[in-house]
Amino acid sequence: MVTIRDVAKYADVSPAALPAAEETALTPDVRWWESAVIYQVYPRSFADSDGDGVGDLAGLAARLPYIASLGVDGVWMTPFQPSPQVDQGYDVSDYCGVDPLFGTLAEFESLLEQAHSLGLRILLDVVPNHCSSEHPLFQAALAAGPGSPEREMFHFVQGPGGDVPPNNWQSVFGGRAWSRAKPSSGTDTDWYLHLFSAGQPDWNWRNPAVGDYFDGVLRFWFDKGVDGLRIDVAHALFKAEGLPDSPSEGGVVDGLRSNPQVSDQEEVHEVYRRWRALAERYQPHRLLVGEVNLEPARAARYTRADEMQQAFAFAFVKLGWDPEAWAAVGNDLEAARREHGATPTWALENHDIVRTVTRFGGGELGSQRARAALVALLGLPGPAYIYQGQELGLPEVDVPLEARVDPMWARGGVCRDGARVPLPWTEDPALHHGFTLGTAEGPPSEPWLPQPAGWGAHGVDLQEQDPASALNLTKAALALRRKLWRDGVFTANDGGTWRVVPGNLLICERNDRFLVAVAMGAEPVRLPDGTVLLSAEPLEQDGWLQPNNAAWVLRG
Ligand code: GLC
Fold this sequence. Notes:
The protein has 15 helices and 18 strands. The protein has helices at 4-11, 57-70, 105-117, 136-144, 208-224, 268-279, 296-299, 314-317, 323-340, 356-359, 363-379, 407-410, 430-433, 460-465, 470-486, and strands at 37-41, 74-77, 121-126, 156-158, 178-180, 190-193, 228-231, 287-290, 310-311, 346-347, 384-387, 497-501, 505-511, 514-519, 525-526, 531-535, 544-545, 550-554. A hairpin with a 3-residue loop joins β12 and β13.
């Protein structure tokens, strides 16, 4: 067995001392996340300070005032730790550092300080299901050979012989979930498990040394003052004992269905109980938000009172433009909330899924629906996340085949690059629409994903000047949301009662004073009585909502 000391040596963190309680300049409210809206930053595509074509920490730091101006409460940054970048940073080779591609640890520390002084909290991504095949512990395991304690940190297993892997599990990215440890060795016939790409070996959470290692990782960032963590593939850390074949031919993490052969094991909840206790040693308490890609009833079990505070409502994240589906998912989430006390965490976009403008029909129609959906999102009962560019109404980009880099695409899955194209800050195409902040000399490199023609039409500078822009709508919704919390119209105890009324008007009643309505049919529909506080488009007739518009209604 690898000892804790070995683990600490690799992680370069001391598991010994517990952190001292630490204060930040932000609101001292320990349950700050209940009303929070968090803005997701994909650092590669946000802002590039040095002209190498990849966004970085200094670029993000320079643009923090923009994020603060939106009126959000914090930022979730996807991984920037050292990584071979096989999966754009979700293949971590050092959990406690900064990849030189993005900057330095000192730059991160100053970014954190700057964010806090602007009233923004910072959440990082932690990737506990797997690491990079370049991680020193995986390299040590490869070198140590079959049967060694080093291999116990991962899932190294003998196959039945020849080219047949230990079981039938398929990778989420496509192809089998197993690779040979040493393909050319005649004596080392171990395979290792990777639910994602071969460059992302899964940790063996049944080995307690793995849990100890991650305690050190959490403390490292919490001690620095990081306000919370988004937990990648949070439901999959434990696999079923003995790694049995999966009855489903689909992937191992099979859509929203709990797959008892692979993920969603009871043991994983102990990890989050331990992490929650750790998060609560700090003042204010640190936040844990899980990527729990499961149906509502199973996902809610991860946000019981002593586990994570939040888990994304994935059933909702993936919805199309379909009122019955929204209402059904909404009511399932509400039932789960009542049973487990788990308030849903709302999102409609992230770096893995097709942007709402495109998903909801594309073009003018898709843009209108995406605006309506954003207004709905921010009025729902619970915390919400918006993804960079969602506030600009960016569509999914059809990235040219030769420019695609997503490993999921390379393994035969869908391509996620279209939601990751660098942001247009300016209408003017100079410096890649302002994505590049400057260069010491010469022209900047091309962005890591090309910006399409017409990208400047979504530019931040244009939208800032247009009162009817998606950007200004987002700001207005966020400001009003804050006020409604302050005035007690929104509370942490709000539920969500969803229904579809004739004419395909979707209604979510948040409490007896407030409801959200979305016109999802083809004809204008009458709104329930009350005062319209906000709508995605101006109302054409009092009390009526045009198709693809959404409104917040104060009743009584
Ligand atoms: C999560 C991330 C995704 C990544 C995968 C593997 O789903 O959001 O981008 O590819 O985990 O780490």
